[in-house]
Design goal:
286 residues, mainly alpha, Helix Hairpins, 2 domains, 14 helices, 66% helix, 0% strand, flat
Length: 286
């Protein structure tokens, strides 16, 4: 627990940010369970609207539960903001933005109900925002940080890969637009680009297909390119994930025998058997 947090504020901080404390461990389970239940609620609500209705016909059980979850997640966001050592840093961090967005839908319902009633797209968007609560679970999955670190380390190579991919899609899409034309379904460049994306990823919906011999040759080349290119990001990510995990093993050093190379979730030294400090002691959250 940081020195600046004492008393009630310190206990709240430990429950929200430090999962190695007893209160933090129980709070972690509570937030994971709340996030999962709220997401399941969205699926049930969208699939069977109005299935359970209270005595007041205007207030369904779904709305009452959404009131509850919105209050819980709003309280979580405010407490994290108040107890964080750097409130602005938390507010503009990835999980800070997710915490804020996932608490907003009901407030939009409340202050602008005509938006949800008149525009079905807005209603679906608000439901999707509630689905983002599932991302909150990633906060409590320690191995997820390996994925984020690997993505950040490989960002330049991945950007180069996707840049080349976009160029290929534009070239082949434009080529098919010229070869096939509107009479065969390639009515515009965006439609042709859509076809190229579906073909390169070897999905092949079949809603747009080439009819000329030259068009079929071009599509065959694009399919072969797709098989060759689709495995590149997998190899890049595997390489960087291995590098990140090896680097983290070297950082886990036993304070007694100074042995390194421990797994991220190891609790005891593999050499002397002494207890290892938790990862949160090596990298404190804000």
């Amino acid at each position: 627990m940081p020195d600046y947090c004492q008393g009630l504020r310190g206990r709240i901080y430990a429950a929200l940010f430090d999962s190695h404390t007893r209160s933090g461990h129980y709070a972690e389970r509570f937030w994971i369970l709340s996030s999962l239940i709220s997401v399941i609620l969205v699926f049930v609500e969208s699939g069977t609207p109005g299935v359970i209705v209270k005595a007041d016909a205007e207030i369904s059980l779904f709305i009452l539960l959404e009131y509850l979850f919105t209050a819980v997640f709003s309280l979580e966001y405010l407490l994290r903001l108040i107890t964080s050592r750097h409130p602005l840093h938390y507010a503009f961090s990835f999980f800070g933005v997710v915490d804020l967005i996932t608490a907003l839908p009901l407030y939009i319902y409340f202050f602008w109900p005509e938006i949800a009633l008149q525009y079905m797209m807005a209603l679906r968007l608000l439901r999707v925002l509630r689905l983002l609560r599932l991302i909150k679970v990633l906060r409590y999955i320690g191995s997820a940080s390996v994925m984020w670190d690997s993505l950040y380390s490989a960002r330049k190579k991945l950007m180069l890969f996707f840049g080349v991919l976009i160029i290929l899609l534009c070239l082949f899409g434009g080529l098919m637009y010229v070869i096939e034309g509107p009479e065969h379904g390639f009515t515009s460049l965006p439609v042709s680009l859509y076809w190229a994306t579906v073909t390169l990823t070897t999905v092949g919906y079949g809603d747009i297909t080439p009819h000329t011999g030259l068009g079929r040759i071009v599509s065959s080349i694009l399919i072969l390119l797709g098989y060759s290119l689709i495995a590149i990001p997998t190899g890049v990510m595997s390489s960087y994930m291995t590098e990140v995990m090896q680097r983290r093993r070297k950082q886990r050093i036993c304070p007694h025998c100074k042995e390194s190379g421990h797994e991220n979730d190891a609790q005891f030294c593999k050499s002397c058997g002494s207890g290892l400090p938790p990862e949160s002691d090596e990298k404190k959250p804000d």
